[in-house]
Design a protein that fits this description.
By secondary structure, the chain is an alpha/beta fold. It is built from 9 helices and 8 strands. Helices cover about 45% and strands about 15% of the residues. It has a 5-stranded parallel β-sheet with strand order 2-3-1-4-8, sandwiched between helices. Strands 6-5-7 form a 3-stranded antiparallel β-sheet. Helix 4 packs parallel to helix 5 (about 90-100).
């Protein structure tokens, strides 16, 4: 099964796609995770991508398409995959279609997680990450036992540059202007499945499975 997860930053795409990955036994391909790893390792790609990510902008299509194309050639993608964070523009979606058509493959569904913008700002600006072990927290929904300190290793919790309030709003603006047209693109192909993103994690996960099943 080949799936795409759409939705604005903070909608829960990463969490839900990881759960679905484990349920279906296919890999979650997250461009966000791959890019952050490249930045942390200070690779050539990471250095190019760093400025775009910290300002809330989109990393250029050629960089993203190159990363994803190489990833989908891996053996674990033979039976399918879940694309999380790609495509983000219609140009990327068209390039993905070209690649799939060239290999005789097709997408099964595009899951679009729908959520209000004010909820997204609250979710994202409240996230904290351990500067040492990278464990994630949220100041209201999953706070550490001691404010500002990681439960796992005792490291200092920090706010990622792309989770600052100003950057969050910029990321949402970028999404509206550049990424949301994908909704119309995939709706026109009868692949889009809208899923309400507010609620308990398991509740949203159940909605996603129902949408995939076409019920």
């Amino acid at each position: 099964m080949r799936l795409i997860f759409l939705g604005p930053p903070g909608a829960g795409k990463g969490t839900q796609s990881q759960m679905l990955s484990e349920s279906l036994g296919i890999p979650q391909v997250s461009t966000g995770d791959m890019l952050r790893q490249a930045v942390a390792q200070r690779t050539q790609l990471g250095e190019v991508a760093r400025g775009y990510m910290e300002s809330g902008g989109l990393v250029p299509d050629d960089i993203i398409v190159g990363i994803v194309s190489e990833r989908l050639k891996k053996n674990d993608c033979v039976k399918g995959y879940i694309l999380d964070g790609f495509p983000r523009t219609v140009v990327q979606a068209e390039k993905l279609d070209e690649a799939l058509n060239g290999s005789g493959e097709r997408l099964d569904s595009v899951i679009n997680i729908v959520i209000r913008e004010d909820e997204l700002v609250q979710r994202l600006s409240g996230r904290r990450v351990c500067g040492s072990c990278q464990r994630a927290y949220h100041i209201t929904t999953s706070p550490p036992a001691k404010e500002g300190i990681c439960d796992a290793c005792g490291g200092q919790l920090v706010t990622r540059a792309d989770d600052e309030v100003g950057t969050v709003r910029k990321r949402l603006e970028v999404y509206r202007n550049q990424t949301s047209p994908l909704i119309q693109f995939y709706a026109g192909k009868s692949l889009l499945r809208d899923v309400e993103g507010v609620g308990e994690i398991r509740e949203v996960f159940s909605r996603i499975n129902t949408a995939i099943a076409g019920k």
